[in-house]
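Case study.
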Amino acid sequence: MVLKTLEAMGPLHGYGVARRIEQVSGDLLHMNQGTLYPALLRLEQSGWVSSKWGVSDNNRRAKYYSITKSGMKQLAAETENWERVAGIIARLLHSAQGA
Amino acid sequence: MKRVRIFAARLRGLFGGQSREAELGEEVRAHLEMAAQEHMRRGMSAEDARYAAWREFGGVEQVKETYRERRGLPMIETFLQDLRFGVRMLRKNPGFTAIAVLTLALGIGATTAIFSVVDAVLLQPLLYKDPSALVLIQERIAKVAPFPFEVSAPDIFVMQRENRVFEDVAGFLGMRVNLAGVVQPERVQTARIAADLLPLLGATPLLGRTFTSEEDRSATPVALLSYALWQRNFGGNPDVLGRGITLDGQSYTVIGVMPRTFEFPPRGMPHNEPADLWIPISFSKKELADVRDNFDYSVLARLKPGVSIEQARADMVLVAEAIQKTWGPEALIGGFKIETAEPPFREVVVSKVRALLFLLLGAVGLLLLIACANVANLLLARPARRQKEITIRAALGAGRGRITRQLATESALLGLLGGGVGVLLSVWGTHLLSAAAPANIPQVQGIHLNPAVLAFSAALSLLTGLIFGLAPALSATRADVMETLKEGGRGESAGRHGAKIRNFFVVAEVAIAFVLVIGAGLLIRSFIRVVNTDSGARVENVLTAVIALPSAQYSDSNRVTGFFQHFFGQMKNTPGVESIGASSDLPTEANWNHIFSVEEHPTPSSTALPLSSHTLVLGDYFETLGIPLVRGRFFTADEEQGKDQVLMVSSEMAKHYWPGEDPIGKRIKWGPAEGNNPWLTIVGVVGDVKQGDLDKPTEAHTYAPYRQDCSGSLGGTSLCQAMSIMARAAIPSTTLAAELRSAVQKLDAAQPLTRVRTLKEVVESSAKPHQFNAFLLAIFSGAALFLAAIGLYGVLAYVVAQQTHDIGIRMALGAQEGDVLRLVLRQGLKLCTLGIAIGLIGALSLTGLIRSLLYGVSGTDPLTYTAAAVLLSLVALTACYIPGRRAMRVDPMVALRHE
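After joint prediction, the assembly is written out as follows.
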């Protein structure tokens, strides 16, 4: 989710990522925004995102995260994987209903 | 791959803690501000907006903590944190740290020093190539002696020819020669060795070359120097190759120098000592022809690959038959039996000192245990403040495991510090040990701190840290949070439980110290017994030395006796000199044995012929040594000229072979009764003199005039050329030595006077190993006693501090100072008595270990046990008295106000 957001929006600070995810989910997904940071750290340690300090819209120093090349690859793989699983489950559910 | 990358990132996360922490804070702050601003844009008040942002974010500190855990490696991070904290704690209590570290250093240092000796002597291989394949070969002829002995020259040749199990067989023979033609003429230990010997040992020279089989066969006079001799007498100059030197008057050419580590024959090998000089063995025609005697040569062989020692033994039975066949009727008494040295070579060398080394290792191990117990008690008795700190940690949610880890880190740190200081101590200790070690400990030159020894002490340090740290850690974490906090300032939350552990440790310390003190006491008593053993000679005021007359100039017995007659004459004119004589050996250093047959008392053919030590005497030998005449007379002038075949025997011999008879006029013969040797008539009986070490039994001894065995042309027999001289005089030994030297110089300026020692030194040198044992164990037990006393003191001091309140109440209720003192002493002595009782059981069950090192003292010697118990009680009493006095001085008012 974070990777997809970064891919779609380009470099973004932590708050931006959190807001974006909430917006996309239509405010259905309410999370503790703080939990985002350890997740970002994990992605950075895996080398899928990189970070650097920048200045926000209203002139505040903030850390901007952006997706890296290997992050793109990982996203593609994850997406494909997810779609396959989702597809299987969807089919399973449909066939179960159909029966 | 991904894991590695994460690990690397986390490893980086361990460092630069502060700036990363600041970044994290900044990032979170930015997030909250942005969120609040957005809320404000939607119309919230500033304060509501901030709260909303916080709500959405979740717990700031929890997030940060999760983030931190993910950032670094928590295991290592907590470890580093514990370490920093531990260092801080140790720095804050310098007194405690110093005592703990020094106590541990003492234990670890002593253990490391002894282990380095054990490592060098027992664990390091002999410094020869593949030593497991080396075997010593001896001959065993039941008829001659009940024990195996060295091999004769002709038999070595048959052995080389007939065996099918050895790669190589090589003989060698040690001897002392006069080295001349050098800066500092000296008497050096030399080994005649076969050319094959050095290749067999895998030894190569540092400089030059070793000699060839051809040089060995043709008796080419070439010599190899030891590193020590090369340094000592040739200044380590490489020009030494090709130089000429003189050995006992014969010229030799130096062709090589052996490396520093090369030592042969190995130290501790019976009848041998490391040589400074090696020359070809080059058997003479006479040696090769002597089939029936001259069982003098040590033989070393290397097993062929894959050949077991049993196969070698089986093969040597065939070789024995071949020898029998080769010499036919000439073979001595028939029935040769040849065996490989029972245990492998290495065992021969080290078996003698194994018991001693294991005893010492056991002793230092016990010392280390005491040190551990002491430090554990110190940790247990640490101020109550520490207990509160731990309890507060527990109250704040630290688990028992976490706190134990913290404490274990601290004690491991202490252990390592102690280990570090201990290794420094042991450097000094090993120097001391290798200097003080008796000559029979092999490979002492190899004693040093090598990586194996250092690894050993590092492991030891950590282990001790764990051992002494565990009990206090467990006891500390056991404390009930509520109880401790309730108890407030008074602490002592470990309460009864802690006291029990402390008492247990002190009792254990006292018990171990008791065992060590008893061991030391037994060895000291043995040493005193050995020193006080009567050697049979009157050792005061006698100086001895060696004069070895080279065979080139003194080829005939008249020249030798002529020299000594002039020498004795000159010395007798020296003021203060009472008597002077010479002999082939000195008391406690007998080196010549004869087998013999007694006339009228034939030895049954199934048993071995008896053996006697034999000494050749010249001049006033018996008077000078103070050996009393028991019966009969001394040799007459005619007999001293070798005109009659006579002997003097020792009381022991007279008693054993002619019980209830007068031995004067009886006759014995060297070798079997039917042999060609002449019958020798006994003319006198003298007092017994020790032949070997003072702790060995006295054996039969025979004496003959020098000329009876050394007459006419001597053929270089070293026995007839090198004589020990002895002079009894009422003047200081240094003056006497100078007089002796100048008398020799006047007669023959080229002859050195060597090995100048007082007879007392000669006799007492055989007590050296006992002295070494007693000295070391005394040091260890002294240290153990000291540590146990400190332990006892520490516990009682702590108890008194804890009981100040109680004592105050007692005194307020009318207890006298003496009552209080008794109260404290009673507690101390109770522990001490229990310790002694347990130690007694321990000591009694361990006597078997020490028995082989004792002389004249039983392992359960009541005197030693009593003395040890008294000593320990006195030390304990002193240790208890100091806290006892402090208790006595408690002011009841102060103690009660303290509450």
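Observations recorded in class. The two ends of chain B are 65 Å apart (CA to CA). Chain B touches chain A at residues 2, 5-6, 9-10, 23-24, 26-28, 30-31, 33-35, 37-38, 56-60, 62-63, 66-67, 70-71 (CB under 8 Å). We will return to this complex in the next lecture.
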